[in-house]
Amino acid sequence: MERPRAYTPDHLAQKILRSRSALAGERKQVTVFFVDVKQSMRLAAGMDAEEWHGILSRFFAILADGVHRFEGTINQYTGDGIMALFGAPIAHEDHARRACHAALYLREQLRVFAQELRRTRGVPFAVRMGLNSGEVVVGAIGDDLRMDYTAQGHTVGLAARMQQIADPGRIYLTAETATLVGDFFELEPVGRVRVKGAREPLRTYALAGAGRVRTRIEASRARGFSPFVGRADEVAVLEAALSRAACGYGQVVSVVGAAGVGKSRLCQDAIDRWRAEGLTIAEAHCPSHGKVLPYAVLFELLRSLAAITPGARPAASRRRLASFLRRLHAAGDEDFALVRDALGLSDSGPPSAALPPDVRRERLFGLACRLVQAQSAHETTVLLIDDVQWIDPESDAFLARLVEAVGWTRTLLLLNARPDHAVSWSSVSYHRQIALSALDADASAALVRDLVGEDPSTARFCDLINEQAGGNPFFIEEIVQSLVDQGVLVRESPGAGRQLRAGRPVGEIRIPATVQSLLAARIDALTEPAKHVLQTAAVVGKRFSEPVLRLTLGNDATSGFTGDDVAEILRALRDADLVRSERSAEYTFKHPLTQEVAYQSQLQEARARRHVAVARAIEVVHADRLGEVSALLAHHWETAGQRHEAQRWRRRAALQVTSIHVRRGGTMGRV
């Protein structure tokens, strides 16, 4: 049969088309996902061609739904299966987790499909799946919304090998993927497996199911929290808001800051402290793929208020829900049936299914707000909604209603989100925003010392980690863990706690995959012009001037930006907390790792072209002091592969150094 072309749903296609540079080709950290039908040739030979065509068409439809549900992209149809990418062409900071969620979802959907085929046609339909994570070169073929994407590299081949060796009905992962998802999923070791294309046998795992840990903050708690430092002022603001709420003046506090800066940790530290004091706490967390899960936050908040624990039996959950509603005297029998149905706890069919969607939505919103108000009449209540930037549209509309409802109650509504998430209710008088910035130098150094220890051999590592992380606590933790995983830092002994020592000499610190994916996702979320400017600035260097950047873009035939465009885009990048202005027309990357990720994501050909453009721009902007910038020019020409030009500027740099020594010492003997 003729296979359908790989395609992308409209909402994903629009994200992709925002970034022309992503379509041109980039290096990306991704998870590659293969799935196919086991023994498809034998199955096809035993039935009519039209019948087999119908089975595969249904199969492909199920696969497309599962992949797109978690914002993956179907790269190609492989005859009797698909290859999908998570993290490309649009980067995701949790691409491996999305791929695993998709695999588990598809396993269940395909299990039902296989049972149906066995029952109706006697066909033993079984599939196998394989995943691997790593770097690929990705680009587009085609220029419309039905795009096929190429992904090349060793990462793709190993994902295919995992699928080929997987037993029917099972999902095999490489160690690279297992490292990224081990905190969040149940994995079963398969052992070391020898596969074609790998020099050594590969550690292989089977994906068994979702784990109890859902969020990064929960994973940090399970491993053991690092010390909570440098947030005394913010803690004081939260305590003041709680005191005011306890007096009957409901409060809304939103903690806003860049990814990894510690928003969830600040909120969780407060929640843990208040829970220990006996306060009533209800929590809801927005998963990164939450926008495709309608009412997810609303339903989780209701479960938390009613103390319905995950995994509890439906009958026990119904009793707990009924007890909660009776205690508050805020809901009748119809309301109980509505909530029971919404939470998937109905034991006799969905009684509210006949309600029009808009009526059902309004009743749910109104009931949830009444329950919060009734709860706060009994006792001071704290509601936490984590990672609001990923909230689904229906829950976002409910959140606006909830903000109105908590005024003049004994409720503190605590939220955290990234700066690019806009809300409509920020102007209410009882809302306070905490802008969370990076740790200062002292707090950052204290965190690094606690994670690494005081061994003299690690002093240089501590300096490098502080320099690279830029005060971001998540970056610090991930860099330290990465160095331990690589054997660069080693533990003194099993009982030495966090005390580490240098295992190998200090070299270049590689960016952990977790940090790289997070930063790449932030960069991909920019508009296409802003991303282009940021990548070009990354080639200029960690520090760059607006005149050099503007002229570089003019020298680069792929840019097409004017000087006014650059000034406006730089302001947007500064507002996005990616760059900061040092002085007039001078900028630096906020985090060194952001510059490195923006640089490394570009293909070598594109980087070389931009290095040439940068060198020519520097020659023009600094024409009156070329001797002072000759070493910098040599670097850009060398990196561009222009060795003759690089050597010419290196000679001039050497003459400049000699001249400086002569002028200072008065004699060549000082050189």
Q: What attributes characterize this protein structure?
A:
Rossmann fold; single chain; 8-stranded mixed sheet; Alpha-Beta Plaits
Kindly report the CATH topology of the largest domain: Alpha-Beta Plaits
Based on the structure given, which CATH architecture of the largest domain is correct?
A: 2-Layer Sandwich
- Poorly predicted residue ranges: 1-7, 660-671
Assess the beta-strand content as a share of residues. Answer: 15-25%
**Morphology call:** globular
Short description, anyone?
This protein is of the alpha/beta class and 671 residues long. It contains 26 helices and 18 strands. Helix 21 (546-555) crosses helix 24 (604-621).
Any overview of this molecule?
The chain folds into four domains: 10-216, 2-Layer Sandwich (Alpha-Beta Plaits), CATH 3.30.70; 231-435, Rossmann fold; 441-508, no CATH class; 515-665, Arc Repressor Mutant, subunit A (Orthogonal Bundle). The strands form four sheets. Strands 1, 2, 3, 4, 5, 6, 7 and 8 form an eight-stranded mixed sheet that branches. Strands 10-11-12-9-13 form a five-stranded parallel sheet, with helices on both faces. A three-stranded antiparallel sheet has the order 16-18-17. It starts with 9 loop residues before the first helix and ends in a 6-residue tail after the last helix. Helix 20 packs across helix 22. Mean pLDDT is 87; it is low at 1-7 and 660-671. It has 671 residues and is an alpha/beta fold. The protein has 26 helices and 18 strands. A hairpin with a 2-residue loop joins strand 17 (579-583) and strand 18 (586-589). Helices cover 50% and strands 17% of the residues.
